[in-house]
Amino acid sequence: MTTIESAASKLEAVYSEVLREIRLEAALIEFCARGARNPTLVSLFKKHSQSRVREFNRVFHGEDYQSKKPWSLDYFVGSADRRAQSATCVVMYRRLVDAGIDKIEAYLQLHRSHTQQYGPLAYNIDDMIRIIRASEDRGELRVEQCECGHRTLIKSDSIMSKGLCPMCTPHRGSKAAVRKAGGLTIASEEVIGVYIEKYVSDKTRVLRMSMQGARVKEIAVRIPGSEKFAAELYRRLYGRSSPQGGGVCNSEFHVETIDRRHQTSVIIKKYLSLIESGVREIEAVEATNAFYLATFNGQSGSDLMGYSRLAFAIVLFKIGELQFCKCGKCGIEYIVLKDEIPGDQQCPVCRMLAGKTVRPEKDIAIEYDVTESGTIFPPLPGDPRRRREERRQKQVF
Fold first, then answer.
1. 322/252 Cα distance (integer angstroms)
2. Across the strands, what pairs with 144?
3. Cβ-proximal residues to 327 (8 Å cutoff; 6+ apart), any chain
C-alpha cells in the first residue's frame, strides 16, 4: 500500500467516524428536546459536553430551564390509565429491541410514537426510560396480562387482579391521571425537526467540504459559525492545520496551460448546469468539485486543481473576469480572460481532436488514490510545490 493509498483509507475511516459522531450528537439534541435529564444522558452518551447540553435545553425549554426531581415509580402505576400507558411503553420497546434496533434509536422511535398517541398526557423521554429500565434491567416493575387479554404494568411485589386492569376497572385511581409533565416539557415535533435538520446538515456539509480539501476560512464564509469544528476536522482528516493564507487570487492560473483552460471550462459548464437545475449555490460548488475530481483524476497534463482554485474559478466567472469564447472551427465554448482577444488562443477541444494531448512523462498528472467506495484523496494547497521539492531532492541524490 502506497503513502497516498494509506492516506485515502485513513480519510475514509475518519469520515465514517465523524459521521457517526454527528448522528450521535443529533440524537443527543433530540433527547434534550424530549426532556432527558443529565443522569440519563450520561448513561447513554459516555462523552458529551455539559455546556452543549445546557445550550440545547435553553433552546427547547427556555432560558430559565432547571431540571426538577423526577417522579417515583409509584406514580407510573398509581392509576389504571398510567399502568396501561406504562405497559405500552415496555411492550413496544421489547418489539423494537427484538427487531435489532439500537437502544438509543429505539428510545427515540418509541417516544415519537408515544407522544403522537398520548399527546399532552405523554411521558417525557426521561420518565419513559426510567419505566423501561425499572422493568427490563432492575425488575422493579413487570408487565402482566389480565384474563381479559389486556396488558398492564404493576410493581414486582404486587399480585395481578382485575382491580389493576385498566379494561376491567377503567376508572380506578383515575383522579390523578392528569400530570404536569414532572417539571419538564416536551418540545414540538416541528421545532425538534427544524433544529436538528439545520444542525446535522451544516455539520455534514462541513464534513463534505473538508473531504474535498476546502480550507477552514472558505468553509466559515459559506457556513457561519463552523470555523472551530472545521479546524478540528481538517486536522483529523489530513494530520495538519488548514492553510491560513488569504486564499488564491491569480486569475491567470486557470488559462496558463491548455489543460487548465479545458478543465476550467468543464468546471464552469458543470456549475452552470447545476444552478440552472435549481441546486443551491453551496451544494452546486460541492457537486462540481466531486465531478471534476472523478473526471480528470489520472489524466495526462497538470496536477488537479484543489477546492480553493475551483471555487475561485467560479467566483471569477461570476464577476466577469473569466468569460466563454466560441471556437470558430468546432463550435465549442471555452474559457478566456476578459482581457484576452477571443480566438487568439488554441481551442482545447480542437487540440484534443488533433491528438496533441500527449505529454512527456515528467508532466503526467499525479493519479490520486480512489478507494473501492469512491473516496478520493483530494489535492490540497501546497501539494504541487511539495512534489517539485521532492523531485529536486531525488535529482540531487
1. 10
2. 152
3. 333, 334, 343, 347, 349, 350
Distances in whole angstroms, Cα of residue 186 to Cα of each of 106, 183, 191, 193: 18, 10, 10, 13
d(CA 288, CA 304): 14
β 322-326/141-145 pair status: unpaired
Q: Give the residue among 104, 79, 77, 80 at the shortest CA–CA distance from 93.
A: 104
Which of 258, 284, 372, 266 lies closest to 9, judged by CA? 372
Give which of 43, 41, 67, 39 is closest to 52, Cα–Cα: 41
Query: Nine-digit cell at 178?
Result: 392528569
- Please name the residues in contact with 290: beta carbons below 8 A apart, sequence gap of 6 or more: 212
What would the grid cell of residue 127 be? 420518565
Per DSSP, helices labelled H in the chain are 3-33, 38-44, 50-61, 73-76, 80-98, 103-118, 125-136, 189-211, 216-222, 227-238, 258-276, 281-296, 307-318, 348-353, 383-396
Note the pLDDT tens digit of each residue in 31-78: 988 888 888 888 888 777 788 888 888 888 777 666 667 777 888 877
Count the neighbouring beta carbons within 10 Å of the beta carbon of residue 153: 27
Convert the pLDDT of each residue in 303-357 to its tens digit: 788 888 898 899 999 998 888 888 878 888 888 888 877 766 777 778 777 765 5
pLDDT value at residue 171: 55
Task: Look up residue 71 and give its amino acid.
Answer: W
DSSP 152-192: EEEETTS---GGG-TTTSTTTTGGG----GGG-----HHHH
Q: Are the C-beta atoms of 86 and 141 separated by less than 8 Å?
A: yes
Tell me the three state secondary structure of residue 335: strand
Cβ neighbours of 62 (radius 10 Å): 10
* pTM, two decimal places: 0.71
